Amino acid sequence: MQKLSESDLIINPDGSIYHLNLLPEDIADTVITVGDLDRVGEISKHFDSIELKKGKREFITHTGYLGKKRITVLSTGIGTDNIDIVLNELDALVNIDFQSREIKKELKSLTIIRIGTSGAIQADLPMGTILAATHGVGFDALMQYYYHQVSGDEHSLLDGIKAHFSHIKGIHPYITGADQLLLETIGKEMAQGITATAPGFYAPQGRQVRAKNAVPDFIGQLNSFSQDKHRITNLEMETAGIYALAKTLGHKALSVNAILASRVKFEFSKEPNKIVEKAIKMVLERL
Ligand code: R1P
Q: CATH homologous superfamily for 116-287?
């Protein structure tokens, strides 16, 4: 088997992976990802014990136990460019032998659960909603750089979404479904819908501040899409990349969104931390 070169897979002198700064034994099979560094401690404070705290740049990791379950919580920072790093390095930690630099014969499938914040784009989704993403539709460019398999209902949804947004130049949406079992277990009793992932926070999410927005009424274009029982419910910046790369690499993923804002009612929650805490508790109870 071919060895991965020192520039394709960068391993630090202490044997840790380049950005995450983690050793293979540092991560659990269940990984919770969050955007905000401070949210790592907000999750690990619920653990019965914490065995490890490490970090580098925006990638802070705590690994510990909740009852008998070993869990890693890791901050990704913002955006699918960071998700590219996090998903590839998590996969390398479990599926590449760092001594031989070869891909292992038996591949491991991680369970990856994002607990993130998000804005609703449908009027019937109030702030405070906890929403599990049935699919992630990406308006960013990440998956143009990977072979990405689309299967089952994703094909027809992708065709519908491409047709709906075909008048916007330069975007090539991609779509991936959540892991079905995680959606049915962790996502039970949560609102559900397609989560749209944007490559920015302002104009790429339809916000108009001072720079002139070249895509008029992006929110209206997102929330007017519907096909069968599916509609786009919310906007954030990581889900589509997590779902697509997790599937490409053979991992299971679910994105749980704490809805802090209504983009159609022009509201932002006065108690965002309470909503995030509700999402954290719902996920931890179901793990
Ligand atoms: C933008 O403010 C950030 O918040 C949302 C978006 O996806 C983006 O990362 O998620 P997090 O709260 O998990 O970072």
A: Nucleoside phosphorylase domain (3.40.50.1580)
Beta strands in 82-218 (DSSP E): 96-97, 102-103, 111-120, 130-138, 174-177, 191-197
pLDDT tens digits for 125-168? Answer: 999 999 999 999 999 999 999 999 898 789 999 999 999 999 99
Atom 2, ligand 1: residue with shortest CA distance: 201
With a Cβ cut-off of 6 Å, ligand 1 is lined by 34-36, 78, 116-117, 201, 236-238
Query: Where does 14-172 show beta strands of DSSP type E?
Result: 30-34, 49-56, 59-66, 69-75, 96-97, 102-103, 111-120, 130-138
> Would you list the domain boundaries of the chain?
1-108, 116-287
Q: Give the integer Cα–Cα distance in Å for 278 and 276.
A: 5
Query: β-strand 59-66 against 69-75: which pairing, if any?
Result: antiparallel
Q: Give the whole-angstrom CA distance, residue 132 versus residue 87.
A: 20
1-108 and 116-287 share one CATH topology? yes
Topology (CATH level 3) of domain 1-108: Rossmann fold (3.40.50)
- Distance in Å, CA 243 to ligand 1 centroid: 16
Task: Write down the ipTM of this complex.
Answer: 0.98
Whole-angstrom distance, CA of residue 94 vs CA of residue 116: 24
Mean pLDDT along residues 264-287? 97
